[in-house]
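Quick one from the shared queue. A colleague (R.T.) flagged Homoserine kinase as missing a structural entry in our internal table.

Convert sequence to structure tokens.
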Amino acid sequence: MRPFEVRVPGSTANLGSGFDSIGMAIDRWLTLRFAPAPGPQVVVVDRHLQELADDGENLILQVMADCFAEVKQPLPGFRVEVSSDIPLARGLGSSAAAIVGGLVAANHLLGQRWDQDALFRRAVQWEGHPDNVGPSLFGGVMIASWDGERLDYVTAPAPTFPLVAAVPRLPLKTEKARQVLPDTLSHREAVLGSSRANLLVAALLTEKREVLATGLKDCFHQPYREHLVPGLKEALAEVAHHGGIGAFLSGAGPTVMAFADDPDRVCSFLDDTFAAVGVKADVFPLAAVATGAVIRLTSMEDRSTLCGNIKGENR
């Protein structure tokens, strides 16, 4: 096996009013460096990743093993070094990046058995939703519909609006965040949520600031999760008065993301907002990225031809 490297961006899902359907790639990265070894070995490089399993329970290895099992081949020997600046369990797509990284690596080792569409479908089956894994695979913005069987999607360019993320230093498991959601919404709520999601898509495609602010307003999940994230309600209500266009809960939380006119002011505001409720949070500027998962042979400059497959056309 020739050494290679896989690099996968993090993501923000449930973007604004696009619950379970709109996501965006961000400039936080998972890097997997593969080299020949007697057996599958995982080496965690970064300190904050020490809780990750380094055996068969590791998500990356599970995804890869599943790919090889499907084609009735044993998982080959390799050593993979895992490094990442995507916070774990914070709503920034750490699990989605691991799934995509495992799929891309396995596909490379299997001679590019699956095309981009098949990789995406496998990723959605693992994750359960398209709006995290889609951006990590393709980059930019992912707009998708998945009913458990049929998957339709369109990719769009990364918007140029600056972003700010506030990452509370407390994990929030997606399972817990899902449990607080209602089984049904009223007809009025459904219509309002749908109209705002439509507006959000238009805003992302045209980069109209005033339309984006309305499209970010959610009624599908944020009202029900406010009590799980102290400071969220205040951030959503006040960010527009402190240099922001609008804020939203990233994924299932607890990270709060904001599009910003003035990133420095928004950083200060979010820092103060979480401090006021006694929550320590890491606040920093971010950017959306156009690049999805890429693979590079580490002994030469040229990337694998898989890169072209991954970045494919809109569908």
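Residues 162-287 form a domain with the Alpha-Beta Plaits fold (CATH 3.30.70.890).
The radius of gyration is 19 Å.
Added to the table.
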